[in-house]
Design brief:
With 783 residues, the chain is α/β, with parallel strands linked by helices. It folds into three domains: 6-45 and 78-124 and 377-499, Aspartate Aminotransferase, domain 1; 153-372, 3-Layer(aba) Sandwich (Aspartate Aminotransferase, domain 2); 551-782, Type I PLP-dependent aspartate aminotransferase-like (Major domain) (Aspartate Aminotransferase, domain 2, 3-Layer(aba) Sandwich). GO terms for molecular function: pyridoxal phosphate binding; serine C-palmitoyltransferase activity.
Amino acid sequence: MGNDKAVTVNVTTVAGDAERRRTFSTLSTSTTSSLVSVKSRRPPHVGSTEKVRELVRLALTRLRVLLSERNGTRKPISQKGLFAYNYVEPLFNWWGANYRVLLTQCLGRVEARDAFGSATKLVNGASHNYVGFYKATAEAERLQRLCLEMLPVSESDAVPFLRDETHQAIAKFLGADFCFTTSTGYGSNYIALPALVDCATVVIMDENCHNSMFTGVFLGICPNLRKFKHNNMDHLETLLSGCIDATDNIIVAIEGLYSMEADVPPLDEIHRLKKEYGFTLYCDEAHSFLSLGKTGRGCLEYWNDYHPENPLPWDLIDIRTGTLSKAVGGIGGIIVGKGQFQESVRERIENLDEQENASLPSSTMAQTLWVLGQPARISRSLQRLANISRSCREELERFGIFVYGDIGTPVLPVYTGRPSVSAKLSYALRCAGLLATPVCTPAVPFWESRVRINLSADFTDEEVNRLVEAVIRAAASVGICRSPSSVRFLFQTDEESFTVEEDPEEAERSYDWVRGLIKMDATMGPTSQQRQLFDTTCGPRILEIGHKSRVQYGIGAGGARWICGTFPPHLAVEKLIATATGMQAGLTYADASIGLASTIAALSRPLLGYTKHYLLFERGASQFVRDGIMMAPKKDAPTLLSYIDLFQLVQQVRKLSRSNQRLCLTVYVRVGEDSAHHLLSNVLEEIATITGPESSMTILLHCTSHYLNPRELISFPCRSNIHVLVCGSFNRIFGLPAGFLTGPESLIRELRYTSRGYMFTTSPPPFVMDMLRAALEWNLSTD
């Protein structure tokens, strides 16, 4: 701790410190006034001088990008792409020094490498390992090994015993009538909200809700969406009173824990409004599931813990969604709720064109049951997590650092104001030994940029103190707090008592339970086509690579790439799939179907230098193509043109070119084994010729075949004004759950920032990506 004096204060379970222990007991049962006093705080204001400084900083950043460009560098062709290229990428990665490639599991300490190859061990404030279950015990590792050896990686229908038990366990844990699981947390809102929205529905949503929730509403029939100011119940009531006479089907959508603000919704006021207006309450518990409440049951339990004198009824929330990629440490989503919504959600799932969108990986099922089977460990971890949070908040605020959020929440968003200061603080924290994420627009308001630090019960006392020390020193270095020369209070607990299991047989019972289910599915479950494909294309050698990778990196990525960082297998797969498809660059999606929809939505944007944009797609195309069109922002949306067959596609392009020599087109084309390959090749060449050199055309080739490279089936034009993208599913090729997109480097870089299914969802599991890496290397070596 340098030369600073330190005063040790015990803050949890040390027997002789009853007074401090009573303080936390009071905090855990405080009245509404305690939370109101926290919620009433407002972040500092960015003054005019600071705003001018920021604009100068951004101008200098733009100049530095310009000076570093090499001859032949192709820039993005849209406004959003240019913004990411000129400002987001260089500042977020701090010119490569804050680029993060994770070389170990996302535990309390993580080893991260920057863009220059320098690796350091850091306290991990970017993971979502809230309750500390990422670290695999010997029993957990045996379960995961058994899963990968005996079951398909992700085919829920082929593991009915494991799937049904997972659904029942989650529903029981959350006191719900039903549970469905999805491939990602993003997918849970993608599926659930459209199932609830009809032509008479009005959805009123907190403006700070996750992107996937807005996407879900846009996909509903005749969506009628209204937004209320964050946690502003007066505004919510005004909206409710304005539509109560027009419909009796109102959904109010909130989050259990807003991760960028670290606060929970005012559930007492929501309860009052629900009794008066009779709406359906929809809550995304992505960050609150297994991180809030004494037993991890989310925001409602957390609220009642703080208000024992006036608890709210458990049936306040009608339907919940959440993710298994954060506290659980796998990947996948959940939809739970009251029985009246069950058939609507089931019907939506059954009508999906691609069922892999609703398939939960077997490894995540095993991990979920393993976690939920240890309630004593969960409660013990959550008590430690809450105490770590309170201690960190108190200490940081003592030094004048503004931290958003409520008492005891496991996220510390540190206010910086200016986006460049957010980027600078994140880099300064890394230099001080802490990995933390800079956050700016569009995730938060431009002048309320911040750095988000996630906490974990897995942190040792030393790591908690290092975290606080790093924040204080880094914040002082960028000028947002007082001098760090004041007396520090250290976090200290009886760590030994924390690691001693209250119920030594709890883990053993959980292990036996899950192991039995895995063996039942392996011996009595239906035949898995996915597993057969994997065994045919990959085999035992690649299976062993998956085992080794899981031991090194864990079973889950720990969160979205832009939050946590990425792993070497992800980078390798992106490079290899680009090579395999003959492209410059690639990116991967955890869910190929959502990836396709998200790509189409991101491509439906205006291009620089063009006044009008046309999007041509095949009539009768996949549901996810139509979803992508519906997800696209309505402002500056392209003109939609559908074609029945390839002949009509040529006719439409020819007609457009006659009236405009400077065309801007995006063309979706499916390429499968059943396609007329020779005709398709000729058509693509013809429409490229028709449009001419002054036009810009993006061709999205959706590969539904078992071939890696569409060039094995078709040829396509190669011109400077033609941008070809290839998207596909690794599940179709290798039996491994992930999607890919390849194309020109400038366009892929843009889509990393603008594609919602990439930006706002969890990365594919590293062990899956490592198996894909090996499969791709083998495939390329045999060509």
